[in-house]
Amino acid sequence: MMPNKFLLILIFIFFNVSFSWAGGIQEKTVSSIGYGATENEAVQDALIEALGQIKGKQIDAEKLSETKRLIKDNQEDLTKSSNKKISEATSGVISSYKILKMKKTDDGLFKVKIKATISVYEKSKQLDRRRLAVLPFRINNNIFNEESISFINSWQKDLEEGLTQTRRFAMIDKSYEYDSNKELSSYQNKQYDINEVARLGNKAGVDYMVIGTLENLANKNVSVGGKDVKLREVSIALRIIDIASGQIKFAKTVAQPKKTVRDILFAIYPIAVVAVNKNNVTLNSGGDFLKKGSMYKVVKLGKELIDPYTKEKLGREEIDIGEIKLTEINAKTSKAKIIKGNEDIAKGFSDGLIIRPLTNKQKKNLVDELDNMDY
Q1: Largest CB tally within 10 Å, which of 109, 246, 327, 358?
Q2: Which CATH architecture has domain 126-269?
Q3: Has residue 360 got a pLDDT over 60?
Q4: pTM of the predicted model as reported, rounded to 2 decimal places
């Protein structure tokens, strides 16, 4: 049995790490100085000065202004008030304070130095990522049965797990409850409509919405190296909608969830080279969707490209300068050996390098039951 002391330490670490990652209400301690005709007014001034040290969006501007007003209008003697009373008077914004030093100046004003503890909101770092939600996939009526339902549910789960592992998106769980379940049911029964998806996306507060339809699911026997292998022929029409613009950000007929994660990532957030060391490079992405031994081309980013007709920015020019082979895959980063283009990769690193998949010559839409082919 685990000792109680050790168990308590583990619980403390878990909660401390969880809350630090997730964000939420945190406390900041600041020191400030205030002046006033009376001791009480000096403390009021010091408290307002302490609030002024909390910058950014950690306290809503309206709430900050209201708290300052509450301090000024407070009838309590702040030189004697308890922390509970100041917390109540400021609606919990100032949880406590302590008078460190109080004196009267030569010009007759009181000067006080205090230490105040202020409750602020620390935003989760994950919320800086693009927010992405996956709507329940549809199934073509011609193949709608228990097997196809089980398959697409499992496929979608693998897709969501893979997208989460990329650390590029703040994923909204697929069980997200819309304002009306009727709306979601209506969406699933209608023909594909970008405007409808965008409207649901706005309600969900997401940047991207993933939708898909299982078009084909069939079992096949093929010969691989003289052995019969059972495979599934899969065809899923997948699209990613940019909610802000209503544009289709990604559209492709896909088969494998891991390969699809890779395709999506390369379309929205190409994997970048973050370090070059002699014959090796380090990439800014890891996770199960990458496979050791896979080959990629290294691309140098050039000038900005503009569509001459629409004036729309198309991205930057991409110049192939080398090839790499993945040798080590971690949770957040990966390492690769440079196979071709050592000199160009070293020279081009300062301009920004990304990687792109090499042309896949294997058959498309054949998914190995053991999930170890066509990667």
Answers
A1: 109
A2: 3-Layer(aba) Sandwich (3.40)
A3: no
A4: 0.55
